[in-house]
C-alpha cells in the first residue's frame, strides 16, 4: 500500500483511539512532529499517555495537547518551560513518570529491539528507583528499567522517500530514530519527499520497514525556535545567530 498520505488527519485516520500510548519525537521544539500533534488535537482523542523527552512549550509541541486536556500521563525526562505542564502536575491533574534522559532513550531503544527490561546504575538510591527491582552485579547496584513499546510513534524527518526511508537533519536526529522502531505504527512527517531510490543508502537513518505512513509538509512550514539569542560580530555588527 502507498505510504504517502495527503495530510496528517488522513495519515492518522483509523489509528487513534482513547487511552493509547504515543511516542512523540523531538527535543524541545527541534524535530517535533507538530503537524501530527495538531491533527491529534483536532481528532478529540483523550486519556493519552505520551512518551517524549519533554512537553514542548505552552503554545507549541505537546503543549497544545496539555491545553486541551487530552494527555493523561507524560513519560518524560524534562518538563521545564511549560507553565501549563507545571500547573496540571502540581494540581494533581496530570500523571508524570520522570526518567533520566539517557534511561528514557535506552528504554525506547530497548523496546524497539524487543528487550523487555535492562539494568542501569542511573537512579539507584534515588526516587527514580522507588518501586523498581534492584540487583547487585560485581559489587555495583543497578535499577531494572522496562523497555517501552508504544501503540503509535509520530516523528519528524528532514527527508523521506516513497518507501518510507528517512533522513534526519542535525539536532532533529534526537529521539526520532529510536522512536521510529518502538511502536506498532510509525507515522512520519517529512520536510522533503523524494522518489524511492533517490537517496544514498549509506545516508539513510531509519529504514522504510519501520515506517507505515507518512506525510509531506507544505512549503514554508514553520519550524519554531524556543529561545533566539544574538551576539555582536567581531566587526561590531549585530549577528542573527540562533543558539
From TrEMBL:
Positions of transmembrane segments: 20-40
InterPro entries the UniProt entry points to: 3-oxoacid_CoA-transf_A, CoA_trans_fam_I, CoA_transf_BS, NagB/RpiA_transferase-like
Family: Belongs to the 3-oxoacid CoA-transferase subunit A family.
Record has Coiled coil as a keyword: no
PANTHER family documented for this protein: ACETATE COA-TRANSFERASE SUBUNIT ALPHA, KETOACID-COENZYME A TRANSFERASE
Signal peptide bounds: none
Protein name as it appears in the record: CoA transferase subunit A
Coiled coil: none
GO molecular function: transferase activity
SUPFAM superfamilies hit by this protein: NagB/RpiA/CoA transferase-like
Entry keyword set: Membrane, Transferase, Transmembrane, Transmembrane helix
Pfam family, one: CoA_trans
Native source species: Plastoroseomonas hellenica
Amino acid at each position: 500500500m502507498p505510504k504517502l498520505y495527503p495530510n496528517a488527519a488522513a495519515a492518522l485516520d483509523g489509528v487513534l483511539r482513547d487511552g493509547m500510548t504515543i511516542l512523540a519525537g523531538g527535543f524541545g521544539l527541534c524535530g517535533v512532529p507538530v503537524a501530527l500533534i495538531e491533527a491529534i488535537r483536532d481528532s478529540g482523542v483523550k486519556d493519552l499517555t505520551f512518551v517524549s523527552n519533554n512537553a514542548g512549550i505552552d503554545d507549541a509541541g505537546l503543549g497544545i495537547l496539555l491545553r486541551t486536556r487530552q494527555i493523561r500521563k507524560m513519560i518524560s525526562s524534562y518538563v521545564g518551560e511549560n507553565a501549563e505542564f507545571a500547573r496540571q502536575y502540581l494540581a494533581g491533574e496530570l500523571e508524570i513518570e520522570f526518567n533520566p534522559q539517557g534511561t528514557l532513550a535506552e528504554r525506547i531503544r530497548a523496546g524497539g529491539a524487543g528487550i523487555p527490561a535492562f539494568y542501569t546504575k542511573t537512579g539507584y538510591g534515588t526516587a527514580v528507583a522507588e518501586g523498581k527491582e534492584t540487583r547487585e552485579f560485581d559489587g555495583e547496584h543497578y535499577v531494572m528499567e522496562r523497555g517501552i513499546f508504544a501503540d503509535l510513534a509520530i516523528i519528524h524527518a528532514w527527508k523521506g522517500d516513497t518507501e518510507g526511508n528517512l533522513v534526519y537533519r542535525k539536532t532533529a536526529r534526537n529521539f526520532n530514530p529510536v522512536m521510529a522502531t518502538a511502536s506498532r505504527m510509525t507515522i512520519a512527517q517529512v520536510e522533503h519527499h523524494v522518489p524511492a531510490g533517490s537517496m544514498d543508502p549509506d545516508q539513510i537513518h531509519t529504514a522504510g520497514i519501520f515506517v507505515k505512513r507518512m506525510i509531506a509538509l507544505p512549503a514554508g512550514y514553520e519550524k519554531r525556535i524556543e529561545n533566539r539569542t544574538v551576539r555582536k560580530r567581531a566587526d561590531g555588527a549585530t549577528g542573527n545567530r540562533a543558539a
